[in-house]
Amino acid sequence: MFRPRLLPEKSFPSYAYLPGKYPHPVRDPLGHSYRSDPVTVAVGEALGSDVFRWGIDLFNHGYYWEAHEAWEPLWQAAKQSAQHRLFFKGLILLAAAGVKIREGKRVAAARHATRAAGLFRQVGSPGGLFEKALGMTPAALAEHAQAIVAYPVVLREPKSAEPEPAFNFILAPVSESV
Fold it and tell me: HSE of 49 in the Cβ direction (CA atoms, 13 Å)?
């Protein structure tokens, strides 16, 4: 499956983090994001931000822990918008499911995916805001998340630090010019 890049000028991390296999990206001096500056984004700008788009690039290419970290500040900034908060928490949980799939932990992956699906089902999309941001409705994303539970993904044992996408869909924002 072709997986486009939204921010091709940014280099992917040197490895896709899996707990216990590689240095912790933030806490370990050998981590790929050690001493990274924290990011702040206003919730009104979040869906059009490079921070959000970077999270999509990371997610689509199998860097699930890193996508979770990219979206975390957006979730934290969304304290005043219940819909944004549900949306970002759903994305974070879906990324966590990707980490668990890559680790071979099916029960944990199913738990995260089920929680993500539940959150996406609660998200409304005023003016198609979230649909434009992902290229699908939150309800469709809930179905993809629930499919992880119904049809568990089994990946090969990671042989290297290379990411392996665990999902058969991509997040692809709708261009404003379309």
Answer: 17
What DSSP assignment string belongs to the chain? Answer: -----S-TTSPPPSS---TTTS--TTTSTTSTTTTPPP----GGGGGGSHHHHHHHHHHHTT-HHHHHHHHHHHHHHGGG-HHHHHHHHHHHHHHHHHHHHHHT-HHHHHHHHHHHHHHHHH---GGGHHHHHHTS-HHHHHHHHHHHHHS---PPPP-SS------S----PPPTT-
User: What token pair was written down for 53?
Assistant: 């788009």
Report pLDDT digits (tens) over 92-137.
999 999 999 988 888 999 999 999 999 999 998 777 889 999 999 9
Q: Specify burial of residue 157 (Cβ count, 10 A radius: 0-12, 13-18, 19+).
A: exposed
62: left (phi over 0), alpha (psi -120 to 50) or beta: left
If one counts every other C-beta atom within 10 angstroms of the C-beta of residue 177, the result is 4
Q: Are 173 and 132 in contact (CB under 8 A)?
A: yes
10-47 pLDDT per residue, tens: 999 998 888 888 777 777 777 777 677 667 676 667 88
CA distance 154 to 70: 25
How far is C-alpha 66 from the chain's CA centre? 8
Handedness of CA 151, 155, 28, 49 (dihedral sign): negative
